[in-house]
Amino acid sequence: MKSTAILLLHCPDKQGIISEITKFITDNQGNIVYLDQYVDHEDGVFFMRLEWELADFMIPRDKIEDIINTLYRTRYHLEFNIYFSDEKPRMAIFVSKMSHCLYDLLARYKAGEWDVEIPCIISNHETLRYIAEQFDIPYYVWPIEKDHSNKDEVETKEMELLKKEKITFIVLARYMQIISERMIETYPNHIINIHHSFLPAFIGSKPYHQAWERGVKIIGATSHYVTSELDAGPIIEQDVTRISHKDTPHSLIMKGKDLEKIVLSRAVTKHIERKILTYNNKTIIFS
Amino acid sequence: MKSTAILLLHCPDKQGIISEITKFITDNQGNIVYLDQYVDHEDGVFFMRLEWELADFMIPRDKIEDIINTLYRTRYHLEFNIYFSDEKPRMAIFVSKMSHCLYDLLARYKAGEWDVEIPCIISNHETLRYIAEQFDIPYYVWPIEKDHSNKDEVETKEMELLKKEKITFIVLARYMQIISERMIETYPNHIINIHHSFLPAFIGSKPYHQAWERGVKIIGATSHYVTSELDAGPIIEQDVTRISHKDTPHSLIMKGKDLEKIVLSRAVTKHIERKILTYNNKTIIFS
Amino acid sequence: MKSTAILLLHCPDKQGIISEITKFITDNQGNIVYLDQYVDHEDGVFFMRLEWELADFMIPRDKIEDIINTLYRTRYHLEFNIYFSDEKPRMAIFVSKMSHCLYDLLARYKAGEWDVEIPCIISNHETLRYIAEQFDIPYYVWPIEKDHSNKDEVETKEMELLKKEKITFIVLARYMQIISERMIETYPNHIINIHHSFLPAFIGSKPYHQAWERGVKIIGATSHYVTSELDAGPIIEQDVTRISHKDTPHSLIMKGKDLEKIVLSRAVTKHIERKILTYNNKTIIFS
Amino acid sequence: MKSTAILLLHCPDKQGIISEITKFITDNQGNIVYLDQYVDHEDGVFFMRLEWELADFMIPRDKIEDIINTLYRTRYHLEFNIYFSDEKPRMAIFVSKMSHCLYDLLARYKAGEWDVEIPCIISNHETLRYIAEQFDIPYYVWPIEKDHSNKDEVETKEMELLKKEKITFIVLARYMQIISERMIETYPNHIINIHHSFLPAFIGSKPYHQAWERGVKIIGATSHYVTSELDAGPIIEQDVTRISHKDTPHSLIMKGKDLEKIVLSRAVTKHIERKILTYNNKTIIFS
């Protein structure tokens, strides 16, 4: 695998932008290996993901951002991020007591499915330490008092750890605590949560019980970026499974676990591949 | 097809009820062709659908209800309904301006998929009269004033028609008016609506626009019995389809149409087959 | 809706082709309203769909093909087709005895869902004439002898009709006859069939019986372009539905009908929108 | 959880059998907690799953089989099996080199999702020993020569181990070897395989490559009991996922992994719960 640069951008839609930017890459000997774009005609916004090989690219990697800035930001009102395929994202996992999502994430990591580092697992409970030990990953526990009196203090420690470990994004693998504004602002659209319902149905706690009470015929799971409004951030992925009147709250929980882990891992995959753009509290997912 | 009797019942769960009732049918020379039962262990309720041939059954059909009443109602606190396969349900369709569900219902009717009569189509608009004419079904239009000042009067006429035509159940095929308490009480759990969202998400009007605003990755449709609370009656059937950031409100409407007609027709099928029991604002759907 | 030109092309992948072609359109005052492209890195092939408004485009519409030919065909080894949004495709429907797909197609047509003309319905049976009459569309019947002795003669008449009616593509809506080489060659990748199985499982006749015999837990339907090999042409769309051991061949047929009509209509939609490219017996479907 | 007896039976359909058997259980003070039955009207076969509490049941557990034999086998031509909920099934896992199914099985086992024992993992490669060690489960490796010259000998050792460990059923978690007749006959309908296609499409090796070659729009996975004919045993569970022309053989493999592990684990769940009956190379799956 050759090293590549990945450019994710959006800007007001304007004729000629694709041809200009692709020409810029090509003229500088960048071999484009991926281009996908999308125009939101309702809002008049242009989105693009461009990936090119760095090998013969004439602009040094530490100058690329600066040059794109200079050439295009003002002219096109461009918002963009540059990533390099050989700089692995660093992922922290937050868990509470349920193991299914954590196992699924770590099994993929161990099998080499993802180009990612996982330097730490953080929890408010000791419960899942044995899994971290199975996979030889440091496990940090800071219990949170029932009255949340120490929550601020705990979060300060967590953020020190995240900083020290150069964490680039966070995965909440059925972590049962509200994330504070402070952490959300430090990782905007970089904290992925899995909610165990088909959002926006059944926001909040015990969604499977809510679903059973309502008598729905299909249940779902939703992965989304965390924002300050509960369960209301940009949706990355959803999936559903059929149920019947024979299901109980318990059987919904069991069926839901399979949904949760698959839906969460699909979101993590897309994030690691830098294929997600967020805009207006929605996601553009490149394929 | 031999004529059959269909018994739909529920009662508090009690040992021996299946064996007693099946024995009663068998002892009276009824050939059982269908038996399905379900126990809700949370609430301790027993549900059963039993169907047997009338040919050699020793109890005359007009005495069956009375005898089951006498023998079992008090003893088992039984709630039940008896239907006969050779007495076709009579279905009224209510429509407004959209044709896709109406066409789907009538195409099935005309192709003989359903053992049902459709004596009338009722609307508040002239728009779809041409379809009724294509299928030679009487089409009645009573416009409703914007201020709803004549709604009570219109509904009185509608209910006279329903009575005259001996309508046994009503299908709202994208009918854009609220049904009154009076009509709901006359047809309890016998008015089927199609809502164009995955309930309980996006209750009320313009659900596809709501879905697009929220940025969901899957949309759905829900058929349910109408109760006095909006979009909150017992759910009969739901289905979903995957969408992406490329979809617009318009494309959601187009994709949703296919969901709506399939989901509505599945519910109508189950109702016509007398395979739905309602309990606690939920449905038990026998297969 | 402003008139647009639609360019569907593929060629060996080569740096700079997107920027060159989009620049060509833009330089000639064509306002690009749609661009989607895809690179098959396995085979090194580039595919693109480009749509631009004709209003201010400086090249007259009858010269566009010629100019693209001259400028790019040789240089890029381009294969391409040009369509104009205001020139509606003309669709012929072939049917035998089953009505569900025909009703679904005509209901969409009548409701104005599709930008298409349907000048004729062709059959080997009188069975569905009443539907054609319901929708006021000419219905032509040429019975085919059981020994197929007159098949060649019938097809000659059919092809005369197709020519006379300027038919651009054909939809086989559960048409139970093999299409000859001659007709396939006249309409290459322009005859859409619906096969009532999840291809390549259950090729040939009675696929629902085959599925029931095999005891599958999911059934499907497949729409594809017709090629000379039976049920082996490029797949356009597939969908599935869950079944159980309780299903019979008859109930599979009933459930399958809903799949067939939806899957066929989705394929027809994509074809009418000129969003399908075929290559190597596969389809590229733009969204 | 109280201990229960589980009776799985089938026999020619005959009036009165449900009432007679449920009466027998009830008369002997067995509290029935589960009853589900199904009649295959095509073949005239009756299937039932009955579960009752052993606490007050007047017949000792070691006499139950004998008594049912005496009372009903001849009279009803009954085929049946008796299981006890407190006698856990013992499961052996066979693997080769891919880890995703193994991790998924062991994560569920460790989380206590299943009432099962897993005394051993058997492989023809050392590759996955680290996972067995992570979960503290004995891992046995017997390499198989490329010419299969030692296959018989290896299988003898494997069967000795299975016998010693009192294995009741086997799960092939992407085990890439053909199972011999001898082992199949020892575990008839008790060896569960996961095949990475939507059977009967793409039997044999490299199904994702076959699927990619054919250009399907949906891929699937199938869990089934192993019989002597390759990939042709009774299907337990299937599921599918949508793909597009953008997928490569590699991305199909990645997407397929999620299907495989979910579909395999659903089958294992049903098997452990003793909810599967096999008949005529099909499964009846109780819910």
From TrEMBL, chains A, B, C, D:
Residues 6-87 form the ACT domain. Pfam families: ACT, Formyl_trans_N. It catalyses: (6R)-10-formyltetrahydrofolate + H2O = (6S)-5,6,7,8-tetrahydrofolate + formate + H(+). GO terms for biological process: 'de novo' IMP biosynthetic process; one-carbon metabolic process. Pathway: Purine metabolism; IMP biosynthesis via de novo pathway; formate from 10-formyl-5,6,7,8-tetrahydrofolate: step 1/1. The active site is at D231. Its EC number is 3.5.1.10. Keywords: Hydrolase, One-carbon metabolism, Purine biosynthesis. One of its GO terms (molecular function) is formyltetrahydrofolate deformylase activity. It comes from the Bacteria. InterPro entries: ACT-like_dom_sf, ACT_dom, Formyl-FH4-Hydrolase_C, Formyl_transf_N, Formyl_transf_N_sf, PurU, PurU_ACT. Belongs to the PurU family. Catalyzes the hydrolysis of 10-formyltetrahydrofolate (formyl-FH4) to formate and tetrahydrofolate (FH4). This is Formyltetrahydrofolate deformylase. The gene is purU.
